[in-house]
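Researcher: Next sequence.
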Amino acid sequence: MSRIVSSTFVSLDGVINHMEEWHFDHIGEESDEIARDQLGAADAMLMGRRTYEIYAATWPHRDDPYADAINAIPKYVASTRLRRADWANTTVLSRDLVEAAAELKGKHPRGLLMHGYGPVAKTLMRAGLLDELCLWLHPGLAGVGTVDDMVFSEGLNARLRLMEARTLASGVVLLRYRPAD
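Model: Next structure:
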């Protein structure tokens, strides 16, 4: 069975949203190459509705090799509210997320990539279906947001094992974890 990998940017104070405040100064060729490698290692992407809405409004209008790859890859959006997806190669998963994700793992041998660590990723972590958590720890405090914008979630207790720690030239530390069990 394949893997589901969640790759997300996080500030030192645990914020995963409001990236305009803390993320974009840390983008460069090194981080772009890692992002391309992550996407290239997956057969499909899995995302929640909010990520889908942001991505569907952005990626189809960009013209570069990464945009071409993200637009072409099969995408699945988990949502009980979204009825249809207009972004190319996107399927809406409106049924039970855990069942759907387990089926997708069997359907995509090279795995699924998720961007962000919101409700979908946290649900998969709780269900034991998230195989890797890749945190891009940024060297700064966001100073914005609420508990809903944080990497932590009340009641989600998971033991993880560090697979890799890599410091990028930008000061971002790439931390790759897998469940310890």
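Model: The mean pLDDT is 94. The first helix runs from residue 29 to 40.
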